[in-house]
User: Fold this.
Amino acid sequence: MTIQELNPKSVWQNFHALTRVPRPSGHLEKVQQFLLQWAAERGIEAWKDGGENIVMRVPATPGMEDRPTAVMQAHMDMVPQKGPGSAHDFVNDPIETRVEGDWLYATNTTLGADDGIGVAIILATLEAKDLPHGPLEALITSDEETCMYGVNHLDADTLTGKILLNIDNEQMGQFVIGSAGGINITATMEYKAAEAEAGDVALKVTVTGLLGGHSGLEIGLARGNANKLMARLVQAAIAQDEARLAQWNGGNMRNAIPREAEVIITVPAENEEDVRELCTYCQGVFAEELRGIDDGLQILVERVDAPAALVPEDIQDNLVNAILACHDGVLRYIPSIPGVVETSSNLAIVTITPEAAKVLILARSSNDNHFEYEKTMIESCFSMVGMKVEYSGAYGSWQPRFGSPIVDKMSKIYKEMFGEDADVNVCHAGLECSLIGAVYPEMDMVSMGPTIESPHTPNERCLIPTVEQFWLFFRELVQSL
Assistant:
C-alpha cells in the first residue's frame, strides 16, 4: 500500500504533496510557494506575512456566519536528520515514504510528520466541501524547529480569531494546555592552534548508532547523548594515553538529542592499541548503561592522516572537562505532575577545531526560577574555562489556563466519539502557543494531533489509524464551534 491509498484520502494526499516539496528549517522558499499556489488553485485567500508565515482565510459556510472565527495552526518546516550512509539532500530531494503495518516511515530520514501532518489536516479542512463551519483562518508558521521565527514576527493584526487549534502535539487523545519555555545557550572560545607532535598517530573515533530523539518530548527517556559519551571517552584517553585533541563534531540540531559524535585525536604510536582497547571497554560500559533504552551504540576507531595542528593542551583539557561537567538531560520533574519534565537541557552541538570551539545547549523549563537556575549553572560551567556564553532564541513557557471553554468542548466531543476521557495535560516540548499567546493574550488555545513517535530522528513514524481517528474528531470539532 502507498501513502496515496491511505484514508482519509484528503489528508494523506495533502501530506504526500508536502513530502514532494523540500522544507528543512531555514530553506522554506519552495514550501511557501507550494502553499500559496495550493490556495490559489482553490480560490482560497492566502498571503505571506512579515514573519514568512503563510496565512489563509475561508469564509463561513452559509448559515454559520455568526460562529466565532477559529485559527488552525501548524508549522511548515521539518527537522532534517538522516541515517548513516544516506545521501539525501534535504534542500533538493523529496522525502520517500513507506507503509509498514500501521506505521508510516521515511526511508532513512526524518518523515516530516512533525509538523507536516498538522499542515495536511489544515489543508484538508480548508478544501472540504462537505464540512459546515464558521469562519476559519490558517496560520502555517516558518522555522519553528530552529528559532520559532514565524511566531516571533507575528503581527497583532494578522489574525482575527479568538480560538487557536494548534496541531503540533504528537499523542492522539491528548489535549495540551501548557508547555515549556526554552533558550539557546552558546559557549565559544578562540585560541592559537598548537603544533602536532611528530611521530604521533591520528585516530578518528566515532560514537554512533544511538536513537537520538526530540529534546523536549523524549528527553526523559534517558537515551544516550553522543557528546556526553564522547567526553567520557576522550577524557580517559587524555588521562591514560596522552591523547591530544584535533577535532570534535557532535550533533547537528539544537532540538535533537545528538545521535553521533566524531573526534580526531593523536596519541604516541605505542599507545594506539591501548586507545583501541579503551574504546572497546567504553562501548561495553556504555552499552550496559543503555541496555533496553538505546541498544544500537557503536564506537568505531580508524587511523587517519595526521592533522597539521592541535587544540592547545591546557585548552583541550578545560574544554573536555566543561563538556563532561555540563548538565544534560532532566534536571527536575513537575512536582504536581511527576511524569512530566519541568526543567531539562540538551547538550546538542559540539564543534571544536585547532583554533576555536563552539558548544550549543538548548535549555527548557516551565518554571521561571528553575529556568534561571539552569541557565546560570550552564553559563558558570563554561565561563569557568574562559568561554564566552551568549543567549539567543528565547521563548517563554505557555502557562495552563484551566477551565478553557474550547478544551471543555473538545473533551466532551472526544468522550462521546471514543467512549473514554481525553488526557488534558502539559508537555515539555516548546509549542508556538506561548508566543502566539503573547501577541493575542485573549485567545483560547489548545494543542493536539495524531500519534507520532521519534520525531527529529530518522526513526520518526506516524501511526496511520490515529490520523483517521483525529480527522473524524477534528471535523466534528470544527463544525461544532
The first strand starts at residue 45 and ends at 48.
